[in-house]
Amino acid sequence: MDPQAQPPTADEPSFASRLLREPLLHFLVLGAFVFGVDYSLNLDKEDPQTITISKSVKTEAHDIFAAGLKREPNDAEMKTLLDRWVDNEVLYREGIALGLDRGDSTIRDRIIFKALSVTQSGITLPKIDETGVRKWFESKRERYDTPVRFDFLEAVVTSDRSAETLQGFVDALNGKGKSDAESSLRVFKDRPRQNLLQSYGADFTAAIEKAPPGVWQLINSSEGLRVVRLEEIKPGVPADFDQNKDAIYQDWRDDTMAQLTTNAVREMGKKYKIREEEVKP
After folding, report:
1. How far apart are CA 165 and CA 182, in angstroms?
2. Contact (Cβ atoms closer than 8 angstroms) between residue 186 and residue 8
3. Short-list 274, 279, 281, 280, CA closest to 53
4. Beta partners for 275?
5. pTM for this structure?
6. Per-residue pLDDT tens for 170-210?
7. How far apart are CA 186 and CA 208, in angstroms?
């Protein structure tokens, strides 16, 4: 049959781009990434000064990441998730040691947050003036600038996906012949360039940057060939410090507190031995 576009589907929010902004993971409050696994350890059977990163912890960290970002975590991302799990375990044990489990003996998260509150109560933020905040803002500018954004369509062929068939489908979409390929249409709006790099790869991003608007093309991505039509490239817009000064200062406070809290928990964690179980392929 002639290629017919199905009704467009709304593009999903850019979960990955939001989650992976600096700092990579804010302390504790990680949404789906605050995972518990069966709390992993039975302190009656193991040295209370040893923290074991079990196979089940690794598996759940991997599965939650893959489900949320629709891709496999790399080694650095897995290390960050497991480091955060260890931080939570340190807080949990320190909370138990401080008697913070009273009335909450079966609610692990509350004990962790109580221990976190105790830890943060001893932290004092450094003083900073407007010049310092502005300097911090410039170092994090990618968080505030509106990036170059791409509007494009993808015709997802659901039948034969050979290169020859896809090229014939592209030609048909551009009014040159017919195609029997079945497809559905996906609509992407305001996709940042960094998101394209993460989702589709460098080759795809470079190709779509050079693509003429309104013309269907066969573009190679990190997961194979895609049938794509660029609609519009929207230029980036630099953020104005003076217009966002208060919000930027609050972000500095939040980031600095998160980093100081992490440092404090890691310092507490030095008295624990971290043991990691190997996961066989």
Report:
1. 11
2. yes
3. 274
4. 52
5. 0.60
6. 999 999 988 888 889 999 999 999 999 999 999 999 999 99
7. 16
Beta bridge partners of 221: 224
Nearest Cα to Cα of residue 203 among 170, 228, 234: 228
Beta bridge partners of 237: 146
Pick the closest to residue 155 from 9, 5, 11 (CA basis).
5
Amino acid at 196: L
User: Per the domain annotation, does 139 fall within a domain?
Assistant: no
Is residue 227, in this structure, part of any structural domain at all? yes
The rounded distance, in Å, linking the Cα atoms of 134 and 241 is 7
Within a domain: residue 62?
Answer: yes
Note whether 125 and 256 are within 8 A (CB).
yes
Detail the DSSP E strand segments found in the chain: 50-53, 149-157, 183-192, 216-221, 224-234, 273-276
Rounded to whole angstroms, how far apart are CA atoms 115 and 265? Answer: 10
Do 53 and 277 contact (CB within 8 A), yes or no? yes
CA 146 to chain centre: 18
Distances (CA, A) of 92 to 107, 185, 281: 10, 48, 30
What is the residue whose two structure tokens read 């003083």? Answer: 127
Full domain range(s) for residue 270: 34-125+245-276
Same domain, 182 and 227: yes
At 108-143, the pLDDT tens digits run: 788 888 888 999 999 999 999 999 999 999 999 989
Cis peptide bond upstream of 23, omega within 30: yes
